[in-house]
């Protein structure tokens, strides 16, 4: 999977107020086809259930209380909290006709329809019968589901990843990185640049130092001469740049003479030259 796809899935999707949630994720193409921009749909009223009161999870065994598969038990494969829906493996199915084309007549496939949360009940592991549950705390402070009929704890199912791996039961192989090595801090941030860090690691000593420089509004003046320029030179650069900018605005294409400084010039000649340019 591309990194851009992972980031788009992780980003929070902003949907309109009248958005109708379904069995597809809001960022998928199927969901976008069902909710095109500008299409108004009737509001669906869903019974509010707090997250801490939700009692059915993926992997639970439940029994259907109504419908054509009433009395059958199955495993929960998907949970949609936005609509209070659950999908059971191989139950409450209907057939869809797909794949019809010019040279192919198509075929029927079985599709599992969602069930409302009020139409199912968790199965008590003690007698394999449906029961109401309630959240309670054990003496150790663990929050568990308890059957109201028998008082037995119904453990939460082990969560499997899409590839079938159970993180709690995984054992590291010879090519796996242990969590201790992963969490070990191997980099210490510092204010040094990359060049300085490389020089320090390789034992390179740099004794040279940068010469002083004077900056104007439009350009930077630096020198490697033993006698650095005076602030008057920086002032000249400011006036000289202003003169070139004004000439460009007037459309004067006459090139402006470029002048360089000699630190040995006298102060009076420099002042006279700056005043004449201005």
From TrEMBL:
Residues 163-184 are annotated as: Disordered. Pfam families: KOW, ribosomal_L24. GO terms for molecular function: RNA binding; structural constituent of ribosome. GO terms for cellular component: mitochondrion; ribonucleoprotein complex; ribosome. SUPFAM superfamilies: Translation proteins SH3-like domain. Signal peptide: none annotated. Coiled coil: none annotated. GO terms for biological process: ATP biosynthetic process; cellular respiration; translation. Its main location: mitochondrion. NCBIfam families: rplX_bact. HAMAP family: Ribosomal_uL24_B. This is Large ribosomal subunit protein uL24m.
């Amino acid at each position: 999977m591309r990194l851009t796809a992972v980031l788009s899935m992780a980003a929070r999707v902003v949907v309109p107020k009248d958005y109708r949630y379904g069995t597809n994720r809001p960022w998928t193409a199927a969901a976008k086809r069902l909710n095109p921009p500008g299409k108004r749909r009737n509001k669906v009223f869903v019974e509010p259930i707090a997250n801490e009161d939700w009692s059915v999870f993926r992997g639970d065994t439940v029994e259907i209380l109504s419908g054509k598969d009433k009395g059958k038990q199955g495993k929960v494969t998907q949970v949609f909290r936005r609509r209070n829906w659950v999908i059971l493996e191989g139950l409450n199915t209907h057939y869809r006709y797909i794949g019809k084309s010019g040279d192919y007549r198509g075929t029927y496939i079985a599709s599992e329809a969602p069930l409302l949360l009020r139409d199912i009940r968790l199965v008590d592991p003690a007698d394999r019968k449906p029961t109401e549950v309630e959240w309670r705390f054990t003496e150790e402070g663990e929050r568990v589901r308890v059957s109201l009929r028998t008082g037995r704890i119904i453990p939460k199912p082990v969560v499997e990843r899409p590839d079938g791996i159970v993180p709690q039961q995984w054992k590291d192989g010879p090519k796996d990185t242990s969590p201790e090595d992963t969490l070990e801090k191997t980099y210490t941030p510092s204010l040094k640049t990359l060049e300085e860090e490389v020089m320090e690691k390789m034992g390179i000593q740099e004794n040279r130092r940068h010469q002083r420089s004077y900056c104007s509004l439009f350009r930077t003046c630096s020198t490697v001469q033993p006698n650095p320029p005076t602030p008057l030179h920086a002032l000249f650069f400011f006036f000289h740049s202003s003169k070139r900018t004004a000439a460009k605005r007037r459309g004067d294409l006459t090139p402006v003479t470029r002048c360089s400084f000699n630190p040995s010039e006298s102060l009076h000649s420099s002042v006279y030259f700056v005043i004449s340019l201005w």
